Amino acid sequence: NAGVMQNPRHLVRRRGQEARLRCSPMKGHSHVYWYRQLPEEGLKFMVYLQKENIIDESGMPKERFSAEFPKEGPSILRIQQVVRGDSAAYFCASSPSFKNTEAFFGQGTRLTVV
Amino acid sequence: DQQVKQNSPSLSVQEGRISILNCDYTNSMFDYFLWYKKYPAEGPTFLISISSIKDKNEDGRFTVFLNKSAKHLSLHIVPSQPGDSAVYFCAASGGGGADGLTFGKGTHLIIQP
Question: Count of CB atoms within 10 A of residue B110's CB?
């Protein structure tokens, strides 16, 4: 049973470009959480999705950020018109239920904006 | 407004001794607490957890203590081993806010040989 898979592991984008981060949950998991870790900080919750639904996006910046979890395929975190401040590690976690305490984390995508 | 605080950015402990990592929280609605271990360039891995209705949970070398009145929890590792060197994050669930976990900033534990 493969773990939570995130790709790419490293992503470099120039200011103004778009970044797409992918997360394939563990088999049988239909709940996905995205977190962001800025340098020297803890992980900050961004968004919680179930298949085809955004349940809680209270941690998402209001502009440029969006997330989806389609019926088929991975969950996608999309950042439009990236800025230097978006440079961070983005972690996805998947859970078999609504309980965030049962979630397993992926290895993360490190986004660098140059 | 940091609801989960880990006030020690780093901690150095000799191999074989006890490591004690501390965590304070401000939101009395948190009902579950977790500790994660994280190596560089990897994701957090779950270590141990405790419900707010308990004051202690033990799993092998790891014990978590919860003091609800003080809004404080601690992770004890005994004996400490070189492989324990990592960043440890305290996290809380519930709180009446977002559906995700609330994390502290982490403590970098260094085990000295």
Answer: 14
